[in-house]
Amino acid sequence: MKKFFNGIKFFSDNIALINLGGTATASSAADDAVEAFNGSKAFGWMSFGEADDTKTAYLERNFGTALYGDTLIIANHNLKPSFTIKINDTAIISFKAQTQRGFTVISFPYREDIQKIRIEAAETMTADEEKQIGEIMLLTTVGQFVHPQELKNTLTREQGDLKLQNGKHFIFNCGNSWSFSIDVFALEQADIELLQTLQGLGSPFYMWPCGGDESQFAYHFRPFLFDDFFKVSFSGSGKPNLKDNIYWTGLRDSVKLLEVE
Fold first, then answer.
1. How far is CA 205 from the centre of its chain?
2. CB-based contacts of 192-198 (< 8 A; 24+ apart in sequence)
3. Is 190 helix (H, G, I), strand (E, B) or coil?
4. pLDDT tens per residue across all 261 residues of the chain
5. Closest to 260 measured CA to CA, from 178, 174, 186
6. Distance of alpha carbon 120 from its chain centroid, rounded?
7. Cis peptide preceding 204, ω within 30 of 0
8. pTM for the complete prediction?
9. 229 C-beta neighbours (distance < 10 Å), count
10. Alpha-carbon distance 210 to 216, whole Å?
11. Minimal CB count within 10 Å: which of 57, 143, 163, 240?
């Protein structure tokens, strides 16, 4: 029987960013390899002269030191799932990969010796295109809610509004950002400890509202799609309480999360 619930999932901050040190290179367009580690999914790396499904291209990140993690994100890409992932020059075999709309989440056993990551690919979703990767992230799973929690979402559209002499408006869009509030009703100690762990991180982290299973929702819309993956930080105060001061009612709390750079 299908399990119809996968709670909101959380990950540590991305430690593959190029500004944290190390190098990036590729089989072609090597000068652009760093763009796949710049924190933006929109602009990344694209191969050059490798628009052929018989040619294997690669993108490699050398951290220059040993890092840790259990999750790789390959965002905004056009690769078929037949790509190869190498850690420290050895292909990893034991991993789980989920892909939708050019967004791939790769989970593997936690390790603390990650000095180099390399993605090798020949085939693209549309045959014989140049290989494209918008962003690669290295993360560690923090946890996942066991029980459903109420997530309230606000999409803020930053706009300039210039009123014209004829009474009409000229509106120019500057960008969008998300804010979230989680009204917690926790009767599971694991959920309580996860919330406390997140609050104790003291740094931004990633939130995956769909929990890795977009199909559990009857209707599909943002921010609950598979590729809705948000870097957030706590804003303001928490309100951890008991309901009516009854000791066995579990945690009641309300926290606010803002999307950050």
1. 9
2. 192/250, 192/251, 194/10, 194/142, 194/143, 194/144, 194/145, 195/251, 195/253, 195/255, 197/142, 197/143, 198/10, 198/142, 198/143, 198/234
3. helix
4. 455 789 999 999 999 999 999 999 999 999 999 999 999 988 899 999 999 999 999 999 999 999 999 999 999 999 999 999 999 999 998 899 999 999 999 999 999 999 999 999 999 999 999 999 999 999 999 999 999 999 999 999 988 888 889 989 888 888 899 999 999 887 789 999 999 999 999 999 999 999 999 999 999 999 999 999 999 999 998 889 988 888 888 899 999 999 998
5. 178
6. 21
7. no
8. 0.92
9. 21
10. 8
11. 163
Count CB-CB contacts under 10 A for residue 132: 20
The 10 Å Cβ neighbour count of residue 213 is 17
Copy the structure tokens of residue 202: 């003291």
